[in-house]
């Protein structure tokens, strides 16, 4: 675990490779319980079977907004215990965002005590007074903890930091060492790098990696929080092979591989069910049931309640059929 004082030197070397954002398997009536055994199996699968070097816990894919503080703490603890039993060097990233700064502080302190390597704070999802308010939020946490901190700039918050606002947070809070830029705004990420060249940036618009941004030092050699485990299997590790090519600056080979393996077509075949609810098409979401249905298609455990907790809607049958068809076409599951 990196302390606040070590954060920036630590991040430049430690944040590498695929980081899996874990879903939460629910069980019981109306999903009121968590299937802890299914969660353990998911962690083991990502770390031991796929050999992914990082985990991203209790964030958007994990439906943090529907979890209690105790549930979020236990999910993180299990990920650390099970994951590091398989790989002692596993990097564990904890998302500790919450509507209340006090709840965020409690979760961040817990992440520090539990042994997480870094805590990411998503731009608060309610009543955010711009970058000034986010800065105050981060300062409140940083003054009371001693752990590396990251920003998580997602449009699901309802407010996305500008490059100047993020750079100001980085400048004033030494514990802040990384950012997950989840708004598909590569121009903003480039501007942020120009303002804060020491900040470790992950850009969710993956085309920038094909454009040589890693070679240029704008982005880092890591997927800080994705669902790579839903895009490959231990028998066919196509995502790992693709990113190994990118990280080794073999961009032409990587693009050829993505086309020939079916990776590029798979993205189109899947559609936008992971991040878009048709009834609100202008809103970026993390549709938990879509991630879990994809996991079920691959044979991963999702618990006895396959839906998301409220306020998310039930995943329609059309989405399930499209997801299933995409996996069959890619060849990760057998054809009917």
UniProtKB/TrEMBL annotation:
Q: Which InterPro entries match?
A: Aldolase_TIM, DapA-like
Extract one GO molecular function annotation from the record.
4-hydroxy-tetrahydrodipicolinate synthase activity
What are the UniProt keywords, alphabetically?
Lyase
Recorded hits in Pfam families, A to Z, give: DHDPS
Q: Does the keyword Disulfide bond apply?
A: no
Q: Record keywords: tRNA-binding included?
A: no
Q: Which family does it belong to?
A: Belongs to the DapA family.
**What protein name applies here?**
Dihydrodipicolinate synthase family protein
Species this chain originates from: Mycobacterium heidelbergense
